[in-house]
Amino acid sequence: MISNAPYGVEPWCLTESHLDLNLIAQSESVFALSNGHIGLRGNLDEGDPHGLPGTYLNSLFEDRPLPYAEAGYGFPEMGQTVINVTNGKIIRLLVNDEPFDIRYGTVQSHTRTLDLRGGTLTRNVVWTSPAGHTVDIQSVRLVSLTQRAVAAISYRVKPVDETLRLVLMSELVANEEVPRQSADPRAAAILSKPLTGEEHYAVDGDNPRAVLVHGTESSKLRLAAGMSHAIHGPAKMSTSTESFDDMARLLVAAEVAPEEELSLIKYLGYGWSSQRTRPALIDQVVGAIAAAKLTGWDGLLAEQRQFLDEFWEGADVEVDGDVEIQQAVRFGLFHIIQAGARTENRPIPAKGLTGTGYDGHTFWDTETFVLPVLTYTWPEAAADALRWRYAVMDKAKSHAVELGLDGAAFPWRTIRGQECSGYWPAGTAAFHINADIANAVTKYLDATQDEKFEREIGLPLLVETARLWRSLGQHDSHGKFRIEGVTGPDEYSAVKDNNLYTNLMAQHNLAAAAELVEKLDKEARELDVTAEEAASWRDAANDMYIPYDHHLKVHPQHDGFTSYARWDFKATPEDHYPLLLHYPYFQLYRKQVVKQADVVLAMQLRPSSFTDEQKRRNFDYYEAITVRDSSLSPCTQAVIAAEVGHLDLAYDYLAEAALMDLQDREHNTKDGVHIASLAGAWTALVGGFGGMRAPSSGALAFSPKLPPGIICLSFRMRYRGRIVQVKIHDHGVDYLLLAGDPLEITHHGEPLTITGEPQTLEIPPAHPLPPPSQPFGRVPQSRHGRE
Amino acid sequence: MISNAPYGVEPWCLTESHLDLNLIAQSESVFALSNGHIGLRGNLDEGDPHGLPGTYLNSLFEDRPLPYAEAGYGFPEMGQTVINVTNGKIIRLLVNDEPFDIRYGTVQSHTRTLDLRGGTLTRNVVWTSPAGHTVDIQSVRLVSLTQRAVAAISYRVKPVDETLRLVLMSELVANEEVPRQSADPRAAAILSKPLTGEEHYAVDGDNPRAVLVHGTESSKLRLAAGMSHAIHGPAKMSTSTESFDDMARLLVAAEVAPEEELSLIKYLGYGWSSQRTRPALIDQVVGAIAAAKLTGWDGLLAEQRQFLDEFWEGADVEVDGDVEIQQAVRFGLFHIIQAGARTENRPIPAKGLTGTGYDGHTFWDTETFVLPVLTYTWPEAAADALRWRYAVMDKAKSHAVELGLDGAAFPWRTIRGQECSGYWPAGTAAFHINADIANAVTKYLDATQDEKFEREIGLPLLVETARLWRSLGQHDSHGKFRIEGVTGPDEYSAVKDNNLYTNLMAQHNLAAAAELVEKLDKEARELDVTAEEAASWRDAANDMYIPYDHHLKVHPQHDGFTSYARWDFKATPEDHYPLLLHYPYFQLYRKQVVKQADVVLAMQLRPSSFTDEQKRRNFDYYEAITVRDSSLSPCTQAVIAAEVGHLDLAYDYLAEAALMDLQDREHNTKDGVHIASLAGAWTALVGGFGGMRAPSSGALAFSPKLPPGIICLSFRMRYRGRIVQVKIHDHGVDYLLLAGDPLEITHHGEPLTITGEPQTLEIPPAHPLPPPSQPFGRVPQSRHGRE
Q1: Which pLDDT band, with edges at 50, 70 and 90, does B766 fall under?
Q2: Which of A424, A482, A584 lies closest to B563 in CB terms?
Q3: φ, ψ at B508 (rounded to 5°)
Q4: pLDDT band for position B784 (50/70/90)?
Q5: Residue A9 has pLDDT above 50, yes or no
Q6: Tell me, what's the ipTM?
Q7: Which residues are involved in binding substrate (chains A, B) (predicted)?
Q8: d(CA B165, CA A774)
Q9: Is A753 within a domain?
Q10: Is B491 marked active-site?
Q11: Which of A236, A265, A572, B355 to pair with A117, CA 20 to 30 A apart?
Q12: What is the pLDDT of chain B when averaged over all its residues?
């Protein structure tokens, strides 16, 4: 646990100035680099010590059996788990005859800096060996956002006071020993020795390089990793290269005087395939490295900077008055663009490529929490992630058939598209993921008006998910359309009837599919959609049953929920959270206790389905029973707290979401960062204090307001080819178009056309509300009490 | 599957006159012998061929890990499974140099007869070896109902035409190879080599004998098996005895002339313990054998007969007009008394000791289906089974604590008292087992007025289960007492709110506990029951919420059930039953489809909670959606069908329950007989056509009526020290007291005192009702169409 953030507060970078071995696993996640295809945990160059060595390639997984004490029909028997692939990060150093290892000798100074604009991780360390020899080391690492298969490291070592015999060993290592993880079911299962060597070679000379090729046993995937070097050093220097099944090594030995330095640039190439031959795969990697060398180290740095400049141009958020949040929201956006930049038909996992948490699986988090951010900041990445859903639709259709349903039933958790959930009440039963995908599609279409995507990807995704809902629900004898036995976002309720969130999201899915089919009637006919079928979706949407408790005047989370006994929060010790690790599901499911926003999330995503009064009442009701045992919850609570007028509370929840990883609020950042929660920081700011909503029809809406403590909030977003800037301060709101044609929006419900000329509008006066209460012991940390 | 019963129809025995190797596993279950402590499957004496070799000792189990693809808090990590112990049944024969094996040579004749009055299994076979030598063999086997640790076999072989060299090998064999069972989750997990040899010895001489002692590795139990022999043969005969870790063998070699025979009596003794030392355990077995030898073979036969005569005196059921049912009901009662006779603080498993089905576990079947029969036929056995529940109450209390509840939460499935269910929605969530135990207690107390049991066993069982219910349920804002998130008898619904059966049974449990606490106030105080606590039970019982659908005028099985879509029975192929093996739980739980009687069982066990009209409407409603995928269902449907007036249908269901094993209706008799379904045949006759009910207050009630086809039904039952005989025929009903003082009863609601003088009363005229319909394809086999 990082009790106090060990990272200095700076607006555009994250700096660690002291290496705490107790926090090493967390810092590996926080300092991870990725481009969505390759992921490198922030392990030290020399490999040891580590929390969890980690090098990942998106979707490169191994099967793992899913056992059951009592099996049931259709329980998936095989799961998928991300594996630690060939580690190309390793550069070991010998100082005279002593290995550089920060656990021995003396660290004179240490800094690591993640540069959010440069896209690099820089490490500076001055170390004195046990025998008293001092070296000054700098390494800079990047995973290229422009050259998908490439990572690179610049490594430089200088003797401080004396001539030293230095040996660098730059390596590729497969099948690293991986520590056994905790018994927490949320941590990943570990596979020891997941890779089988297929080929290896090393080439000496001016361009010392090596390639290792490995395969996975059960999933039958093949990967190649290659390295190539440019070395600079003193005259007295020798190099050699060698390779083995699980290791390749470049050795550089040199006698280096104090005024001299020994340095190398290491170019890494990675590739994997389920189909390509070994030679083809090797060529792919060798080619990628050749291209990277042509670009050169400085060229890679420049490309990285250019890519990120373009990203920040339409994505930056400025927070004046809270430097921690300022840093955190940029840190979050950086990890999100890292996770999504180059996925290209592959998923964005819950932890990105920063750790093995949740087995490297992708959940609804992507569509519901991450894609909204990408849609408004880097829409190509959102499109890519949805193209992956389309790419695995055949498996979702087979899954639907297995379940006795029509259309496509997307998996609750997966890497390659197959359902991998081993506990169906909190897995397969969470059908809302299908409507979440549909919602991400409609939001993307609204934000981009991408007609090619609409025809090719959007239409089939909407059609097949609508078919699913039509077969999952049924009309009752009163003509209402009901959906029984499903699990909503709140996993402390499972397999319930008419989950409000699910019904509302399904309603949107059905209606949106019917609408798009009307627009694209030719393409729809190719998907065998008839007018009758589309009408049946429209009918189901119109007839959707929306549970409402007329006595309490709130929406029950599902049928009967408001009659349940409340959880006994007073009797629940603080260390018994998260509850699922300390109480049986049986008790959680039958009580009024909410793990994460459910009705409240419905109010964010389907705002027009609730009156203002209902939003206020529902928020207060669920606030009192929501324990936030999921990192997905606080950002949603922040958005609705802001909407209904609890601005201080919204601020507290914003901080909880934003600082999730920087302060390790859930004690599991070591397994990877919480991509969705990081996205939630943006959502809390833009959707919460910015009040940004993109209604199904009508103009983009803003209802800005600021909590005490934030002096000015300014954010940029991309929308239909424009870049919009909204700047909220205590005198009002400045709207400005940074790029593109004038745009119709609404400001607190009033129409407004924004242009390249700044316009300042007033914020309507707030009506103070009595603050709602949280469960005993679950009051969020106050943002005002932070000094 | 036994498509046509291979057993001849005889009133007092079951005879197999042809050995079909395809049916060998089923016949091993059907011909199993047991006394509730020792169980011997009907394996052939010579061991080969077999379906499943089986020798069991009640509660001798091994642990087995329960794995989970995704673990959850409190999921049991270790289960228990019955193991095949040292096999003492084996007597192999060599005819000249050829082993007697019915798969080779020619079986000239074969019969096996289970004698329901004698308590023996007799086999007669005349076999000609491949080389043409013919022998005539008879074996008679018994498991003593009077000497708990003893089984015995009389084995006799005669050459038919010529002098033959015969060798008998009488053995004890541990760790027999056991065939791998099917993937059906209901079949038992198999453990290979579950026993570790601890000691063995063999003694030659006049009294050749041997003992093997083994232990189990994980459950740390120890067992001893011993054998001793009395041998009769020709002058030229030699014997020897030897023993090894996993085997002991008596060899008898003799030259036998045609007019001579070679015979032996094999006395078997078994004992096991978790505590006793090895010498003590050996002495226990040796002593048991010595006592049995003193009694002698003829003595054991006589004791067996005497025990059963006494049983049948108060238990026999005569069915005139249907010889199959006549045989089946006696066969069922025989297996029930075998399962329950000598359990003595051990449970009665779902399969008795006849196979490894359900891992040898005990469920609610015992209390709900088996104990009612024993209560009215051999009440000591019912008391024993409930004493076992009391004996494991410490584990049930710990389980309640784990679940966050008060009192005792008895396990859904267990051998030794620990919860062993690996899928909690159809395991731990089935809390009704606690009320089922309480109901068995109150029925036993009503039937026996056993005050010692009431004080020592009944009171604590009722108190701790009442405490469970009080903590499991809660008062809602309207003052109703609700029980959420539990699973009722119907396992095609799980984790539902206010299951009608559960609420009604809990109501009875709470009220009965409060009443008994009032009577036994001193003993109750020792259990820390205060007047306030008892009052809170009474309140909860009075306030119990009983769901009712005013629109349909039926009781929903649970909240919301009647709004669910009906299962699409027309689209369900015949070979897709049982549904749980062909459809996901997710679909089963959300549709109106019932695996087994649930509301209908509530109407049987809590008759006064329903009006006659409600019973009729409920029965018809649930009949249309009940698929009878559980062997526990038809007997209950028979009882209520008879009560509401569907006599033909009741007859059909009676037959389905009664012939479950003799006709292998569920294709799994090979794993053991269905003790509860066999009990259901008695219940269908006595509770159905006899209309017998024992109300919570008031006199024992009968409402006899007969279906067309049964000419006369006569049954005997024990009640408060009496033996009552009820004889139903087409002229009326004859009531007669066979033993004890006059008894107040009711006949179709009218009071009557029955005495030693027969009294004949009229059966009120029936009002014909339109027959209800069953799900498509699930109409029961008509009993009228059987010719």
Answers
A1: confident
A2: A482
A3: -60, -45
A4: confident
A5: yes
A6: 0.91
A7: 364-365, 595-596
A8: 89
A9: no
A10: yes
A11: A265
A12: 95
